[in-house]
Each structure stands twice: as C-alpha cells, then as structure tokens.
Design brief:
The chain has 160 residues and is mainly alpha-helical. The chain contains 7 helices and no strands.
C-alpha cells in the first residue's frame, strides 16, 4: 500500500489534481467576484472565471503536472480549443444548476468534476504528450526503416 501511495504522489494524475484544485479556487473566486460584487450576468461571470484561470492553469499543468510535454505553441493552441469547448460546457452546467435552484456554486463544483474527468486524459495524451524514447533497435540501427531523415524532436522544438 505504501508503494502505491508513493507512486500516486509522484504521478502526473496527482499533480494534475493539485493544479486543478488551485485553478478551481481562482476560477470560483473570479466567478463569485464578477457575479456577486460586479453584478454581471451568471453566464458572463462563469466564462470570466473560467478564462481568468487560463494562464494559471495552463502553465502549471504544462510545467508541473506534465513536465513540459509537447510543444509550447501546439499546446497553447490545443489547450485553447479545449478551453473553448469546456467553457460552453461549464456555462451550461452552471446555468442549469442555478435554474433548478441548486445554486451556481453547486453547479460549478459539478461542472469541474465533469470536465476534470475528460481533461486529464486529453491533457496527458493530446495537449502535453510526452515524447516516446526510441527503442533499443532504433537507436542501434541508426533510426527507423523509412527513407525520411531523422528529426530531433525536443519538448520545445517548433513541431506543433
């Protein structure tokens, strides 16, 4: 059990959850500020909170949770697309919970749980993918069997 806990604490999933929790606090704080203090419509305050936590979440997920995987430009573009999709989903869920009388905070919590369910896998495999190391046979034979030249792809290369 101790080995499992140690492995989990060192995993990208654990780091993803930590960053996600901190991002949620930033997001909900901005939502409440815009909705309750500034009097913005709920849908607009929800979107503002969600987008307000964009940079905080992106950079911590990329560098802390997923070790800088993928390329910076490609990751930002893919993350932005996912963020646009998630924004619509979150705004709809929050509005639905407010409409049925459960309140926007409950809606925000539910929306966060729902989106985190798919976000981890999308982050890990599409937004911040880790480069696969070459197999021993590829390293000793000088590359793959294709006729194309070998490319040196580093996490910060210009490949997107």
């Amino acid at each position: 059990m101790k080995a499992f806990i140690t492995k989990f604490l060192a995993s990208s999933l654990f780091r993803f959850l930590i960053v996600g929790g901190l991002s949620f606090i930033v997001d909900l704080g901005l939502l409440a500020l815009c909705f309750q203090v500034f009097g913005w419509p709920l849908w607009l305050a929800t979107g503002a909170g969600f987008w307000g936590s964009f940079f905080f979440n992106y950079f911590l997920q990329r560098h802390f949770a997923f070790g800088g995987g993928g390329t910076a430009l490609g990751g930002v573009l893919r993350y932005s697309g996912l963020l646009a999709f998630n924004t619509v989903a979150v705004m709809g869920i929050v509005e639905l919970f407010e409409f049925v009388g459960a309140g926007y905070v409950v809606g925000k919590v539910v929306a966060t749980i729902v989106t985190m369910g798919w976000n981890y896998f999308i982050y890990k495999h599409w937004i911040f993918p880790q480069k696969k190391p070459k197999s021993a046979s590829e390293q000793t034979s000088g590359g793959s069997s294709s006729d194309s030249p070998a490319q040196n792809l580093t996490p910060n290369s210009s490949e997107g």
